[in-house]
Amino acid sequence: MDTIHCRGVLFDLDGVLVDSTPAVARVWAWWARKHGFDADKVVREAHGKPSIATIRELLPNANHEVENREVERREIEDVGDVVPLPGAVELLKALPLDSWAIVTSCTRKLAEVRIGTAGLSKPRHLVTSNEVTRGKPDPEPYLKGALKLGIPAAQCVVMEDAPAGIRAGKAAGAQVVALRTTADDAELRDAGADWIVDNCAELTVEPRGNGEEFLFLRRRIKQSRTS
């Protein structure tokens, strides 16, 4: 089996650890119809970015904070079919708490609700849209995640499903494993993914030596790019 060497892991939340796609689609489709936009297009554009960024882009003259609070409220209430994605629970349990962080475009309140609803291990380190000035695809979220771990981003692996998040991870200097939960392989490769997998179930992890480095064992992973 091939391997990926790293000291830290930075996980996106939605589409990587948690399947919230139906809830996200319902809320953003409602919002799009309310403002006269194409629902499918808005749902695609909103994925992987802070909700307020999408609102600012599409409604530059609106009260962005009010709109964002309403989107957040509806997403928090719509968790009936939010579930963990394959392998997510097991992979988090295999990693020491100090070696991983969740870095999400959700607000902190929404992230905590989805983490709890999906039954994931509670992260010791969490970066949300509330803690950053510039969201994905800017590298700031992943740089802050690496800082929380006390590990250089270049020694971390980012787990992402959205092109915006992949670009953020690469811009931060990390290796990126992309999941086929949201975009097709061509989009993932174009965004810069180093590897592509179906889900977290394709990865296992072993501690090495003094515990400073971890070894991801790749199973059935198709490498997306060659050096």
Offer a quick outline of the entry.
By secondary structure, this protein is of the alpha/beta class. The protein has 9 helices and 12 strands.
Characterization of the model:
It is a single chain. By secondary structure, the protein is an alpha/beta fold. It has two domains: 160 residues, HAD superfamily/HAD-like (Rossmann fold, 3-Layer(aba) Sandwich); 57 residues. A seven-stranded mixed β-sheet has the order 6-5-2-7-8-9-12, covered by helices on one side. It has a three-stranded antiparallel β-sheet with strand order 1-11-10, with no helix packed on it. Strands 3-4 form a two-stranded antiparallel ribbon. Helix 8 runs parallel beside helix 9.
What percent of residues adopt helix (DSSP H or I)?
Answer: 25-40%
Beta content comes to: 15-25%
Strand order of the largest sheet: 6-5-2-7-8-9-12
What is the CATH topology assignment of the largest domain?
A: Rossmann fold
Average pLDDT metric:
89
Looking at the chains present, what oligomeric state does this protein adopt?
single chain
Report the biggest beta sheet as strand number plus sense, adding barrel if it closes. Answer: 7 strands, mixed
**Secondary-structure element pattern, one letter each:** EEEHHHHEHEHEHEHEHEEEE
Residue stretches low in confidence (pLDDT < 50, at least 5 long) are 220-227
**What is the CATH domain class of the largest domain?**
Alpha Beta
The N- and C-terminal alpha carbons lie at a distance of: 19 Å
Alpha-carbon Rg, integer: 17 Å
CATH superfamily of the largest domain: HAD superfamily/HAD-like
- Helix count equals 9
- Number of structurally distinct domains: 2
CATH A-level architecture of the largest domain:
3-Layer(aba) Sandwich
